[in-house]
Amino acid sequence: MSRSPADLLAAALSAAVLAAVPGVAPDAVAQEAQGPRPTLRDLGRAPGVLSPGLLNAITDVAGVKVGQVTLRSGDSVRTGVTAVLPHGGDLFRDKVPAGLSVANGFGKLAGATQIRELGEIETPIVLTNTLSVARGVDGILDWTLKQPGHEDIRSVNAVVGETNDGGLNDIRARVVTAADVVRAIETATPGPVEQGAVGAGTGTIAFGFKGGIGTSSRRLPARLGGFTVGVLVQSNFGGALSIDGAPVGVRLGRYYLREEVEKERADGSIMIVVATDAPLSDRNLERLANRAFAGLARTGAAFSNGSGDYAIAFSTAEGVRRTPERRAGQATVADWPNDRMSPLFVAVAEATEEAILNSLLKARTTTSVIDGETVTVEALDIEAVKAVLGAGR
Length: 393
Prior knowledge:
This protein is 27% helix and 22% strand. By secondary structure, the chain is an alpha+beta fold. Helix 1 runs antiparallel to helix 2 (26-34), helix 4 (133-145) crosses helix 5 (178-186) and helix 7 (282-298) packs across helix 9 (342-361).
């Protein structure tokens, strides 16, 4: 991907400013100087048959907002928080229907049982690292309880997902605070979503390469409902990377079960957050979440014993929102029929696949010191990827 002199100058200036900030990790300065990395579509690839939304992001679903706090300092802090808000109103009062799917349950998803039992979400969805789930819950509670009109609340089902970034982050230091979580929620916006080694993806690893936060969306044509499906992922798992059908991991010699590279493990996790404006029941949202794993499989995931593979899906449609009035008694609620769900299933699989690939392509090489040893996890080599894609399957 060519870069203009203006881009190079802007990157250099940004790096200089960053270098002057106390506590900022040296590799963060180096990364800033490198300039932007490509998305999958920048490489001329677009998995599937459906078109993306305007931003090709989860925020293409109207009302959805994303906020991120990246914590990168010293030799070993490489972590953060990513928050997804289903809508910009009172999330606790106007709950959204939701479904949860678990492909492998080696994880710590706070709030999961109430999603399963009631089929709804009443808080932001927060992603962070494994040992910071409690801080995520604290942050959600701090933010929710202080909202106007919440003075009588005595129970909140905070939803916090995680992946383990201990390979690049001093996870035992537990540097994420409740204030960081609140900041991610309060700075959430409905616009473009930063991808790669940011937020909850700052220290993650996927397929042996640097992983991170990725996003994508699909929009159905009017004849199929005209709905949008958006996906955001936190990638931190293993397998044999496939990009749009091309065996990139195998061709680059980095993949799970390769005898020569015993360290290439498939353990880790992925959090998949799915948003749609289709008027779906919690039952059909669970079905939609199930199909997200089709997209995960297409990337070459191993679904290993040590991986926590979770998908949460929610609907923002006004016709299904669980308002106080609807919860007070019998109500008429919109319900998209089973027989018209299949296009949405295709959309979520395609968007999940692309979101995962974007999380790797946008991530940058990251260096840290873990247990006294310097660890470097390389980002995908873009030129090498281009070569594999150009060689065909």
